[in-house]
Amino acid sequence: QGGLRFQSIQVVKARHNRLTDFSAVLPCLKELDLGYNEISKVPTVVGMPKLEVLVLAHNSIKSGFKPLSSLSQLHRFDISSNEIDALPLNLEQELLCLKKLPLQTLRLQDNP
User: Residues 78, 57: contact at Cβ < 8 Å?
Assistant: First the structure.
């Protein structure tokens, strides 16, 4: 219901804005950069079917990659420098939802 609605935007770069969440319906969006904010969970991206690049680096995300499983065009996902502190088995389960995506780049470094 709520959130922003822009029909033709293809790139959103919202780094360093102290955002704690992000919600929008952006049907043409190809790149979303929310790095260096205060986001604690992977945003809902159901209104972004064409998303190819998602940057969530340098936030406070701990887990919850399931919202990304519907992104059939996502090829770059950067979740580096967050607070992902899952045990190997839990991390594997988290990453399973990304298995069917056409990912070419997955950045996970600098998590506890």
Answer: yes
